[in-house]
Amino acid sequence: MSDEREKLVIDVREEKDYKMNTYPAALNFPWQQFGEHESELPKDKPIYLICYSGKHSVEICEDLTPKGYEIYSIEGGIYSYLRVQIEGQLEDNEAQERCKDIERSIIKKFRPELWSQFTKAINTYELIKDGDKIAVCISGGKDSMLMAKLFQELSRHGKKNFEVVYLVMNPGYNDINYTTIINNAKLMQIPITVFDSDIFDIVAGQDGSPCYLCARMRRGALYSKAKELGCNKIALGHHYDDVIETILMGMLYGGQIQTMMPKLHSTNFEGMELIRPLYLIREEDIKKWMHYNNLTFINCACRLTESCASCGGTDKGSKRAEIKTLISELRERSPYIEANIFKSVENVHMNALIGYKTPDGKRHHFLDEYDK
User: Fold this and answer.
1) Does pLDDT of 208 surpass 80?
2) Residue 325: which domain range?
3) Residue 309: inside a domain, yes or no?
4) Do 211 and 171 fall within a single domain?
5) Are residue 193 and residue 329 in the same domain, yes or no?
6) How far apart are CA 280 and CA 202, in angstroms?
7) Do residues 209 and 110 share a domain?
8) Strand (E) positions, the chain?
9) Does the pLDDT at position 312 exceed 60?
């Protein structure tokens, strides 16, 4: 901030987001309860508000300015500050050493949690074979950026029997998110290949939630581009927590037992395969690695669901968010809950099921063979 006067900076986002990253010494008055803190606001110094995108902070300023407060909304919200942070990192003369520190943290400090689990998943589920050319798909979030660095380290210190393309699709990101992805790739020295699509524009006109259609279109676009580049596999950054959340979501909201597979053949792109190399890595450990290296990634890049709770809106959030909270509550009761959910789809007793469906779609019921 160019204002050199003594000032008060207030982050009006939710507490969980405030704790992840904010302006130094900023206070946290969530926008929903901001009115409760009005008596704590000074009138003898300027006040700057940091929001998600600026929407709520502008509303607060419009309410308080007539009351005699010198109060400002930071244009662009937290993303403006994060962009300045990242650009400052790139200008640092020690950028090369910083990248090496990030790489060393993967191989040394977080070796058991990240590197060992990454290589274990590759070996356990046979995710890489001789001659593979893999499109490592980078969305700009913490998971996919870590995955890219893990593949780099695998090329340097492990298997060398495959090729990699670090693929970034721009489905219509806003300027801040796009710049963040590009700058992080430079900082972490990931040689990305970028291609554009108009997926956000296409799904914006659809009725109801655009998420399902958007996800399918993005997956198809990644397969198509990867195949065009000569790849036979795409790698996505789904982790252990995504897997157990999917299992519970299927049971509680879908009435079925299924999991997120570590790999699967594409049904629409012949010869293409999807792999998930972070399958055994915990999200908590990814966050620890991110915070240890003081890295900032985009959280939710979607510009279509501005009311999404994860982006700071007022909606209650997605079913996945509800499941994540449920699992967290269950973990407090038993440390084995998460591992048991994960293992449950590996320990299926066919003779103890009422019914099941085979890959060809045929349904079987236990009464079919009961009296035979």
Assistant:
1) no
2) 319-370
3) no
4) yes
5) no
6) 35
7) yes
8) 8-11, 27-28, 47-50, 71-73, 133-138, 163-170, 192-196, 233-235, 263-265, 273-275, 355-357, 363-365
9) no
Does residue 361 form part of some domain? yes
Structure tokens at 196: 């554009």
DSSP category for residue 353: -
Tell me: do 285 and 330 sit in the same domain. no
Per-residue tokens: 288: 């620890």
Q: Which residue has the tokens 């790139």?
A: 90
d(CA 341, CA 349) in angstroms, rounded, equals 15
Q: Can you read off the two tokens belonging to residue 78?
A: 């937290």
Residue keyed to tokens 């650009």: 87
CA distances from 94 to 26, 39, 89, 294, 329 (A): 27, 45, 9, 15, 42
| In a shared domain, residues 105 and 67 | no
The structure tokens listed for 329 are 């509550």
Q: Residue 285 to residues 241, 264, 282: CA-CA distances in angstroms?
A: 11, 25, 5
Q: Are residues 329 and 255 in the same domain?
A: no
Q: Which residues have C-beta within 8 Å of that of residue 199, sequence separation ≥ 6?
A: 171, 172, 214, 217, 218, 221
**Spacing of C-alpha 253 from chain mean position:** 22
* Tally of domains in the chain: 3
- pLDDT digit string (tens) for 122-133? 999 999 999 999
CATH of the domain at 54: 3.40.250.10
281-294: average pLDDT: 96
